Amino acid sequence: MILKRRMEAISERKEGRRSKAQSSMILMVIVVLIFMALVIFLLSIAQTVSSNEYMNMYTHNLLLSILRADTGSNDPECKYVSDLISCSFFRPSGYQCSGLEMTCQDLARTRIEYYMSKYAELQGSFNYLLTVTPRGFIARTGEGEALKIEFGDTTLKSAKVQKWSANELIQRVSGMSEYYITVNLIISVKD
Amino acid sequence: MSKRPKPSDGRKGQASIMEYIMLTFFILVVILGLLFFLSWWQFSQLGMEEHKINTEKVFFTARYVSSSPYFVKENSVFDDAKLTAAMNMGKNLCTRMESVFGYNWFIRIKVFDGDVEIPCSWSSYPDCNSWEFCTDTKDDRKSTSRILPVNIYRKISEQNGVGTMEVGIYI
Amino acid sequence: MISIYRMFQIIFGIVVSVFILYFLIQYTANYAGFQKDVQKIKILRNLKTTTESVYTYGNPVVFTDTTMYDFSSCYMSVVEPNPPEIRCDFSQIGSVFIPTLLSLGKSMVVVDSSELNLGWYVMRWVVVMPRTKIIFNPMESSPQVWNIMKNITGLLPATDNLEEKVTFGFCDGNEIIENICGGDCEKYGFLEVLETSRAQANKCTAYIPNGYTLITISSQCRMGFSESGVCIVPPSQGAGLAYLYESGEEFVYKDYFDILALVIGGSRKDVFGKTAGERLYSYKNDIWKDRMSIAAGIMKQRMLLVSGRYQAAGEYMDCVPIYMSLSGVLGSIETTLKGDITNPSVARNLAVMLSESKTLHSSLVNLGCEYYV
Fold first, then answer.
1. Number of domains in chain C
2. Whole-prediction pTM value?
């Protein structure tokens, strides 16, 4: 009886020691896994920081390049893409650029789509959305609705993907007044 | 009278020594493992630092070149006549520009005009659409580069074209 | 007797602690007292990044990290064939490609950019200087003297929206006059004052405290004439002479950045007895010579290229002879730059040619053949 109790006590102690050793091993493995996860996390952050800076620079340069591009027209309302955008906002919707027989908005769309496709050929496809909104004033269509011009993928604004954006201001002087419109470009890399 | 050692005492002793040996072996393995890990960590840190430095150099060169009056009409609007004139100065220009832009940089500028790529030179200007500075002819030279959209002002036709600038560093 | 299991726990605990401590020591080393130099180098690297940003984007900023340590030993240096660097008694930061006129101490500094515009080329400089009161002592009231003051003021930072200030005033005899703008006079306020009033002053004999820089303008300037700051002789034929207190040298200036280098560098001497102003002037001319030479070379080629194409196409024919003249002048500038530009006659020659190039370029712009950079 005593021997049985002694044997049981020894076996319990052994069990206790074994489970202590087992839990220590598990703890060690957990600690090592945590360190490895930390390292991987730090490495992945470093890559993201550098690629974000590049994409921000790229987006900003892309917007500027497109806005400053010549359209081929000598009409002062239509010389650069920024002029076309400004003309789409401030001129009647039927206004046509001389020599090209296209409205400002249509010509802007054609030019923007062309340049975006050229850049996409080089850098890989991306989705873009270029929106033009007035700053400090409201412009209305003939039907009385607030005027807002968009080129590209309109679903991009609310899409849950990684996006980069850039803004530029276009100034327009009309009579004695100055007006500003904001051009915003959002891009995201296509899967 | 001293107690005679039992055979099981010897086996217990051997088991105890074995435990110590296994413990030592395990500790050594853990220490070696950690040393390797630390060495790899240091090595990868150096690699990351080098990559970071090279990337920063590329970004700096991109910003500096695209605002340099040697090449541009205004920020990020290159003047094709200046680019062609600079190219005409040959490799000597790269050596002289080391004090301005640093070492081992290169740039390639191309215009999107729908045509075949024609390198610009004194004879082909203005009917050309690409420029290269300080590029190495050896194909196997490692480099890191970035492409950015830019404008190119065509002096003779007085039009702003759209194109790209590839800026890189040889590593 | 301690069990194997217990010993294993202890040893493993020591190994993991050493591992953790290794990372802690590595990352906190930068903030420990004995790693001061590492911190100083990081601050200088941040300053270098700030100058690059100001150079590219043009917005002035105040850099505050230089309050932590004394950087008064730092100066700009260029030793061929190495790229320019910032050298200090504790270390150096290499590859400082942005042309920078720098004066550091143990205080915040203003970082701003200014340019030298020749029409066909613009050379931008970044100015890094601490809070300073610039005190002018115009001993003559000629338009030339007023022009010097306007040009120097125009190149200094506008600190209206910044915490660190660069302010301006006059000295007349024994008196320092500072509150001319209804308070401290900053750049644009002082320029307005210069536009509206003109009167000569007596030689400044007032005590010039620390943080003040005296600029005397007089045809009587010579070595030892002024007891503080910079003494400027009005230019003749585009170039003139300047003297720096505590420096035994005569400095030739052909543009106002030469004077700015002396003003910003100042009279503080190093262990070799050379003033900081002298070192900065030397750096400025080395950089200017190098970059101007490249610019003149490229633009000379460009003028020939464009004029050739216009001539072939029969366009802008009025501009073709001007292009050829400008190309010739740029070629002469390129050749002259190979000589000693701190020699008075070479400097005068250069100043005349630079002025001529600017005039020719303006003619091209007026005819619609060129644009201002």
1. 3
2. 0.84
